[in-house]
Design a protein that fits this description.
This protein is mostly beta strands and 130 residues long. Helix content is 8%, strand content 53%. Strands 1, 2, 3, 4, 5, 6, 7, 8 and 9 form a 9-stranded antiparallel sheet that branches. The model has no long low-confidence stretch (mean pLDDT 92).
Amino acid sequence: MQIDYTARRSIKAGHSVDTPYTIVVDLSRLDRKYATVGNQAVALSGTTYTTVHRREVLFDLQTTLIESSGTPDIADMLEFLDSVSSGESFSLDVSGTTETYVLTSITRPYSTTRVGYDDIYRYSFSVRKL
């Protein structure tokens, strides 16, 4: 999966702030979800009133194992995830088409799982298509 983003935080050595970068990440999980945001009210007569605000396409993603000596490396992933963690948009090529996304949460934008005692990590995050 190709990720295009603009570096804003946790800048990797040799990179610059406000510069666009591209990384290619292998995924171990790519789950598509669909959600409707709105509300529903039922009158005393039993009539249902539905208000739909928007429909969302969501993806849960998890990377394969990422090492400090690989491509992308740990610094690439931290730069990408931290740079978009405050609601900044970025592009993903999820299904052969490049589209714009945001992380679904700003309070817990991603999780990092350390595998073993070496510098090997797996990153998990959820995105919403804009």
